[in-house]
Automatic annotation (TrEMBL):
Presence of keyword Transport: yes
Annotated keywords: Cell membrane, Membrane, Transmembrane, Transmembrane helix, Transport
Domain ABC transmembrane type-1: 87-266
Transmembrane segments: 21-43, 49-78, 90-114, 134-159, 201-227, 239-262, 299-320
Name under which the protein is recorded: ABC transporter permease/substrate binding protein
Length: 866
């Protein structure tokens, strides 16, 4: 019978969809990422035990006191075994997937229940969705959406949707037909019949379907960890790939606890939302007798109060704890490092993670199979991988994706692929010697990951060239499983043949024989290459330059692997740090810093908390001092706060110092309230001003008086900022009436909107009048005229002062002395603000570094060290 090319058709269909509907997949990715980030931000915000308390209150409301106690203990246990963050990631992913699934599945189920045709069409589709192996959904998910949470969410939705559709349809169909007929007989609209009769009676069945959705979603979330979905799935995958019993037990236990909680809570939810469920609950409680108190459940209002109180407590605890710190050098720029869980790949990946962190970047590592790793890198989801075996082992992936990758060069040459046997196995020295000895080796060769290039070469070429393909079976597993089998066999002195490669630490640990390959079936050996995604060198030239010059010899690599292995799973960077201590100066050799070396201050190591409001001069000066202090060896923490909470934090000592106190006018009320708990370290900018500004190309407008005659030119409008600011209030109540300008319209869309309007008008050379103040970076970016205020209606000018907690000079005497002598001019501050604006949100340190490079000697001027 001729072969039916279903696989090829499916591949062509996927390629067509990817090539023609990329815009749709990008939109879905953006929406799902946004939804996931929002839910994860809410769940990750409270301290672990506070969130455990919130979940316990919900359990008390739904199932009673014993369930609440067990919930708290269960989630406290998850926190104690250091699986809290992965659990929250998995819970977020489940909630997103289930939310979308229920929104789609319940209407489909209702439609199927009301239409036999729809039900008949949906049934085989649901059968396909439900019976297709779950991992298959990950393949198109990677191609359409790349790596990360989105393919996991999409695959989870597809896999978990059928039960919700089926149970909704079943629940609607099971409603007594006579009840429906009675409703219709009384003239009830079909929509009302559905909402008031069928859905309430079908609710228990629908809730059972939703319960199944959640359970299936959780199982799929774990599988999604294989494609970078994160969470407990990643922990389980790492445990499996490294045969780590401890990590597997802990991650598995966290999955069980989360699954039990979600199962019990969704199962009990029906008793709260269904009239039938509430009656059944009341009967069950009545039958408990004296133990009835255990099943007492608070009213919904009481439970909500408890949840809100705990949530507010969580918010209050974290309110003053938000930090905006970013390291110097890399300026906090993120880099994603992918690796196949092979020893040299893991070792070099975590080595680069440590180096990049020292240089101020924010690297993230992701363990993946070879196929998803190359595919993800080709899509741009992975920036770099350190362990591409070329030109042989990974030739299949390189040939497929090389147009979307950059070869950053070879850091180790040359490797070899081989079959190895223990040295106590006699008369087996070459691959030819394996022939006829299958019984001795149990008829198998113990392999590694099925997607590894070595496995493909072994099965497609090596076994055939040596006539072993009918005699030996290649057992696919993982590198860690293969090494575990090798260890067990060596200790029992049993014959075993394993796939290995050089370099590998196993040759130091065990007495092994590399089987010679006289026919050259494994190839001539590979180099270990660094590969970057397309455009990586352009986006990160400094890192690309470091990586192109990176080399390790066999002794360095094997010792690094051994230190990482000794540190244990989950402590890879500790192993890297141990190795780097044995190799002093290597970090500077691998990644030479482009920045000057600065002398350490006498209080180096101290960690002052620096607060700042989201005002341009506050952001600029806080990040400037953050950079300067790090150069002097301090470990500052930045905290972005509103003005009121920041003054409160200063008075209590939670904030040590802030650089943006506008006195004696603008922030007088705060100073009067807290001055006994504060210290004034003096002004660093003198003096500020409030004003209306117009572009310099607007002729004949130099003072506030000139605006009257040019009203039509400005369309009778002044572009303002936030309506609650003191400047806006003074403008409307004092300035405009004094100059007879009350008939001008003052917009109040906010500072960002005002600056956007200024930028638009400036580029079109249109007249515009805006509310501004000095200092402000706009005066550095645009040619503007400050309108003179001959009547003095804007009031007295402020100084910008540095304020500290009263204990600040004692805790940080050196830093305090620097601040007392610090001054900035209008040009210096304006150019600093402009460089930060140009760098963009999240890259403030990059802007500061650029400004410091343009002002040589400024660090020594601001923070002199003898």
């Amino acid at each position: 019978m001729p072969r039916i090319q279903i696989g090829s058709w499916a591949n062509d269909a996927v390629n067509w969809l990817r090539d023609n509907l990329d815009w749709l997949f990008n939109l879905i990715t953006t929406v799902l990422n946004g939804l996931y980030d929002a839910i994860h931000a809410v769940l990750a915000a409270p301290a672990p035990l506070l969130l455990a308390g919130i979940l316990a209150v919900l359990a008390w409301w739904l199932r009673g006191l014993p369930a609440a106690v067990l919930t708290f203990l269960g989630f406290a246990l998850i926190d104690s075994i250091q699986q809290w963050s992965p659990t929250i990631e998995s819970l977020s992913l489940v909630l997103v997937a289930c939310l979308i699934t229920v929104v789609v599945a319940v209407p489909l189920g209702i439609w199927a229940a009301r239409s036999r045709v729809v039900g008949g069409i949906l049934r085989p589709v649901l059968d396909l969705m439900q019976t297709m192996p779950a991992m298959v959904y990950l393949i198109p998910g990677i191609l359409f959406f790349g790596l990360g949470v989105v393919p996991g969410i999409v695959a989870t939705i597809v896999f978990s949707m059928p039960p919700a559709v089926r149970m909704t349809e079943l629940g609607i169909r099971q409603v007594d037909g006579e009840l429906v007929e009675a409703a219709e007989a009384f003239g009830t609209h079909p929509r009302s019949t559905l909402l008031r009769v069928q859905l309430p009676l079908a609710l228990p069945t629908i809730m059972a379907g939703i319960n199944q959705v959640i359970m299936l979603a959780l199982s799929m979330v774990v599988i999604a960890g294989m494609v970078g979905g994160g969470g407990l799935g990643a922990s389980v995958y790492n445990a499996i790939s490294s045969v780590n019993v401890a990590l597997g037990a802990e991650a598995g236990l966290a999955v069980v606890i989360l699954a039990m909680y979600l199962d019990r809570m969704t199962g009990a939810l029906n008793q709260r939302v269904s009239p039938l469920g509430r009656r059944a609950l009341a009967k069950a409680q009545a039958a408990l007798g004296r133990w009835k108190f255990l099943q007492w459940r608070p009213a919904t209002s009481v439970a909500m109060v408890g949840v809100v109180v705990l949530a507010l407590l969580a918010g209050g605890m974290s309110f003053l704890g938000k930090s905006g710190d970013a390291a110097s050098g890399g300026n906090g720029k993120p880099i994603t490092l992918g690796y196949v869980n092979w020893d040299e790949g893991k070792a070099t990946t975590y080595l680069w993670k440590e180096i990049l962190e020292e240089r101020g970047y924010k690297p993230k590592v992701q363990a993946l199979e070879a196929g998803p790793l190359f595919a993800g890198q080709a899509r741009g989801d992975i920036d770099v991988q350190t362990n591409a075996w070329l030109p042989t082992t990974h030739a299949e992936y390189w040939n497929k994706y090389k147009d979307k990758l950059e070869d950053l060069g070879t850091w180790y040459d040359k490797t070899s692929l081989e079959i190895a046997v223990p040295s106590y196995v006699k008369d087996v020295k070459t691959l030819d010697d394996l022939k006829g000895k299958a019984a001795e080796f149990g008829g198998k060769i113990t392999g590694i990951e099925p997607g590894a290039g070595e496995m493909k070469i072994l099965k497609d070429k090596v076994l055939k060239d040596y006539g072993l393909d009918g005699e030996y079976q290649v057992q696919e597993s993982s590198t860690a499983s293969m090494l575990s089998e090798l260890d067990r066999a060596v200790h029992k002195k049993k014959p075993i043949a394993v796939t290995l490669w050089s370099p590998h630490w196993a040759y130091d640990k065990y007495p092994l024989t590399k089987l010679k390959d006289p026919k050259g079936a494994f190839g001539s050996g590979d180099g270990l290459h660094m590969l970057g995604r397309k455009g990586f060198s352009k986006d990160m030239p400094e890192v690309a330059k470091w990586m192109k010059n990176f080399h390790l010899d066999e002794k360095q690599l094997t010792s690094l692997e051994n230190d990482i292995k000794s540190a244990g799973e989950g402590h890879e960077q500790d192993g890297v740090r141990t190795w780097l201590k044995k190799n002093p100066g290597l970090v500077e050799k691998i990644a030479p810093s482009a920045h000057a070396t600065y002398a350490k201050g006498k209080d180096a190591g101290k960690a002052p908390n620096i607060g700042y409001p989201a005002w341009d001069e506050g952001i600029a000066t806080a990040y400037l001092w953050n950079n300067v202090l790090k150069k002097r060896g301090y470990q500052p923490n930045l905290r972005n706060l509103d003005v009121g909470p920041m003054w409160t934090g200063l008075s209590t000592g939670q904030i040590d110092v802030e650089t943006d106190g506008w006195l004696p006018v603008a922030q007088k009320q705060y100073w009067d309230k807290y001055k006994n708990d504060l210290v004034d370290l003096g002004p660093w900018y003198d003096k500020t001003s409030l004003e209306i500004a117009v572009p310099s190309y607007v002729k004949g407008v130099k003072t506030m008086d000139d605006l009257r005659a040019h009203k039509d030119e400005f369309k009778g409008k002044i572009i303002g900022i936030e309506p609650g600011t003191g400047e806006m209030q003074r403008l409307k109540s004092t300035v405009l009436p004094a100059y007879g300008l009350s008939d001008f319209e003052v917009t109040s869309a906010g500072t960002s909107a005002m600056l956007a309007e200024l930028d638009r008008a400036y580029h079109k050379q249109e007249p515009i009048a805006v509310v501004l103040w000095s200092p402000h970076w706009a005066y550095s970016k645009y040619h503007l005229t400050k309108l003179a205020d001959p009547k003095g209606t804007w009031g007295a000018n402020n100084q910008i002062k540095t304020l500290g907690n009263k204990d600040f000079p004692k805790k940080f005497p050196e830093f305090s002395g620097w601040l007392k002598n610090w001054k900035m001019s209008a040009d210096e501050l304006g150019s600093l603000e402009k460089d930060i604006q140009d760098a963009g949100k999240g890259n403030e340190d990059k802007g500061v570094e650029k400004w410091i490079d343009g002002h040589p000697g400024i660090v020594d001027q601001m923070a002199p060290v003898k």
